[in-house]
Amino acid sequence: MDISEIFLLTVLVISSVNTIGPKLRLTIYYESECPDSERFILEQLQPTVQQLHNYITLQLVPFGKARSINYGKDGFVCQHGSSECLGNMVQDCALSRMKQYTDVMKVAYVACEMETRSGAKGDLHCVQNAKLSPKDVEDCVLIGDGTTLQLHSEYLTSTVRPSFIPTITVNGEFDQHIQDNAQVDLLSTLCSKLKEAEPCAKRFNSMALNYLLINER
């Protein structure tokens, strides 16, 4: 196969998979001060969502290995301390007010929180950067529905019972193979289920083209 045939094959494959099919439901269970969560969100989730936002529906669940005390009446205990509990609740409150935002915008907000740990410090500048009302989010945490939101996140997390944070599910199901691969290459992991998606077709064709060119030498 010469280079012109390879190029033609690549173009044909890409052009044949432009149709957007059913979206994947991607859920991320994470913690606001977890180093593994931070690394995953900044290095894997954010760039992947930027490429695949037309093909996935994202749910972000900031709770992890925390637990409620007396159904939240006496607060929560979190893996990385009380500041993480605050960070989890700030993010839950902010995300609950972002229903009309795109997944790209939601992840950008969460990435800001994970990188700066702002919410965990009681600083709402990431909230403000996301064009949300800091007063509204502060009220949610102090006197509003913050506890209820965290109890719901606790319930969602309990249905998965994660042994490692962050944990991901696809279409509501946990798969250890997907979980392990997603930690190092989320884009390729999702593309294995989204072969019809244009960004995935381009990625796979680029890989195939590189392979053929190397073996042509």
UniProtKB/TrEMBL annotation:
Chain ranges passing through the membrane: none
Recorded GO MF terms: oxidoreductase activity, acting on a sulfur group of donors, disulfide as acceptor
Keywords in alphabetical order: Glycoprotein
Pfam families: GILT
UniProt keyword annotation of Repeat present: no
Family stated for the protein in its record: Belongs to the GILT family.
Name of this chain's protein: Gamma-interferon-inducible lysosomal thiol reductase-like
